[in-house]
Amino acid sequence: MPVKIPDSLPARGVLEAENVFLIEEHRALQQDIRPLRIAILNLMPTKVATETQLLRLLGNTPLQVEVTLLHMASHTAKNTSAEHLLEHYVSFAEVRDQAFDGLIVTGAPVETLPFEAVDYWEELAELLDWAKTHVFSSFFICWGAQAALHRYYGIGKYELPEKQFGVFPHRLLVRHERIVQGFDDVFYAPHSRHTETRRDDILAEPRLVLLAESEEAGVYLVQSADRRQLFVTGHSEYDPCTLQGEYARDLGKGLPIGVPKNYFPEDDPTREPLVRWRGHSNLLFSNWLNYFVYQEAPFELDVPSAKGGRP
């Protein structure tokens, strides 16, 4: 089934060229089914690229998904045009009275700041509190995961001596959970961050379950005990050349940056990157949409509701 997005969204042309299943708004309105309502709070500076990455993954399922793109009104975007935000995004204030099947909160380039020092923290904290009653299942990525763990569970983040940068092997700690159904015992995922969430902090919180980790990159996949929240510390949504672009950007700025690990063949940045995370990435998003959103969220979303199955 397709992803329903506005006809004018820039990602549409890229996704159509890749044969990702999309549907025009007027066609979706004629179908007698209810699409899944997914809100995406896009905190990344490269908003169009991130939209495309996430929509590509949401479109690789047999479910119709209606996406609402959110931005923080308390923050002025420097890398995205005001016209793009006005045409395709809404503020949290515009949806606070609505309910959604799912919410995705992306990473953000603010991880070295204390949470409360981020200029939109107060608005984000309000949204995270709202999500507990107005969203059935939430999916938090990288800094978004750290922010949600801090807000919900008081779990901190810790600065790393150098950037965790590259593609790392991870192993499953729990195999019976549906979110990891179909995963290999060892799978790969990209990371690009200056801070970490510590294993001992997760294990000390009985309301959280550590599902997967990396010997080198640390905590990767965490789930709330009620299975309503998913925290991913890496960037499974990244395109094949995203890390390459970040590496070139940091080099150009004269920042201290190493070659992303396990990414270029023989760690040679003149060679084409090797993609080893695409299968895991598609499984992660399709499992979330199917088992934790479609199969569990109530059909009626007019008001916040308790857990109930779809008819």
TrEMBL record:
Enzyme class: transferase
Cell compartment(s), UniProt: Cytoplasm
UniProt KW keywords: Acyltransferase, Amino-acid biosynthesis, Cytoplasm, Methionine biosynthesis, Transferase
Name the UniProt record assigns to this protein: Homoserine O-acetyltransferase
InterPro entries membership: Class_I_gatase-like, HST_MetA, MetA_family
Keyword Acyltransferase found: yes
NCBIfam families referenced in this protein's UniProt entry, alphabetically: metA
Residues the record lists as binding substrate: K163, S192, R249
Family membership noted in the UniProt record: Belongs to the MetA family.
Record site: Important for substrate specificity: S192
Gene field: metAA
Enzyme Commission identifier(s): 2.3.1.31
Organism the protein comes from: Geothrix limicola
